[in-house]
Fold this sequence. Notes:
The structure is a homodimer of 222-residue chains. By secondary structure, chain A is of the alpha/beta class. Chain A has one domain: NAD(P)-binding Rossmann-like Domain (Rossmann fold). Helices cover 39% and strands 22% of the residues of chain A. The first copy, chain A, is built from 9 helices and 11 strands. An 8-stranded mixed sheet of chain A has the order 3-2-1-4-5-8-9-10, sandwiched between helices. The first copy, chain A, has a two-stranded antiparallel ribbon with strand order 6-7. In chain A, α4 runs parallel beside α5. Chain A is globular, with a radius of gyration of 16 Å. Chains A, B: Keywords: Oxidoreductase. Chains A, B: Residues 2-104 form the Pyrroline-5-carboxylate reductase catalytic N-terminal domain.
Amino acid sequence: MRIALIGGTGDIGQGLSLRFAHDTDHEVLIGSRDPEKARDAVETYEEELSERGVEASVKGFANEMAADRADVVVLSVPPYHVADTVESIEGRLDSETILVTPAVGMQGDEDGLHYHPPGTGSVTELVAERAPDEVPVVGAFHNLAADALSNLDNDLELDTLLVADDDDAKETVRNLANEIEGLRALDVGPLANSAEVESVTPLVINIAKYNEDLHDVGVTFH
Amino acid sequence: MRIALIGGTGDIGQGLSLRFAHDTDHEVLIGSRDPEKARDAVETYEEELSERGVEASVKGFANEMAADRADVVVLSVPPYHVADTVESIEGRLDSETILVTPAVGMQGDEDGLHYHPPGTGSVTELVAERAPDEVPVVGAFHNLAADALSNLDNDLELDTLLVADDDDAKETVRNLANEIEGLRALDVGPLANSAEVESVTPLVINIAKYNEDLHDVGVTFH
Lengths: 222, 222
């Protein structure tokens, strides 16, 4: 499969790119608003991978081109760019493209981070509202610490939580996520259940803030 | 210490009572609106404990009496009874009594459970708002499956998350929680961070609903 990381030069985009390229045989496409920036990121990622003896297929494109070529499109952009980004690529999506959203709306103050969803109830549901009706949307990878992903020396031992209304699309993303070593995907039902999934992101950041011995906090369910 | 479980005949009250009585040397007081019901529960709990060779001190009282005698008062009542229950016992609380709240507001539909906090932002903050100003409030034990607690054969291996504005009270509850075998208490900062903590409860119930191999789902952070 071809996996496009839209905004793949950012921190979560980097982490997911490296893990997909390192652990799977899928083709990884890095998207950026500036294709030059995407190609620079690809160079860095390939260097990192080749140091570990992995010759992976990673290519850089403008976001639209990356989306056009991909089977799975991951919106690895900040929450306030999600709506614009969907608008900019929607002509390149169709019923055969799975749109994956890991973004979470948060607001910080001196106490910590607080879950701050848009009016749709969650960023995941905002993506579903804005994407063309025929495009299946899957919420995934919300609660993964970017630093933990990006450092390939890290054993993950993490769960990621999936929400989607389209069961086939969810199954595809579930298999993809499970191909990343140390990552386990759990089903949390339809998109309507995404707010509680997204809330885990500010929570794990707060846990890292208040517990000295915990950094890049991940979560497992059992 | 004396720990009162207000509403201690309910499922989370039963679970916490058994664990405190089994794993610690503290005195456990079961509170109920009906003292007779509290004493019946005590009989059941003592039987369960004595089968395991534990002669614990568990006593049953009306809620007000239990609160009056306790150092730590756990409001193990459903979320819609929290405000009334605080009102009914507030004359028995003072600055030396720590009020602990594990309740979470949720609403269910065919998709699953959804986090549904009161206007204060969380049930934990509702308790703090309704309790007398001098009484320290700690949010704790929100995300523990009652069935997992109540079955003493279960090894817990669980984290519980603490929020409080009073650091001494939080430390006391942290130590108490850590005395339960297999339970680890993590600090999540002040009461303002409680909504994300409470959101974990509907999330773990949804995870149990959609993943056949997971029941009484617990969570660990690392």
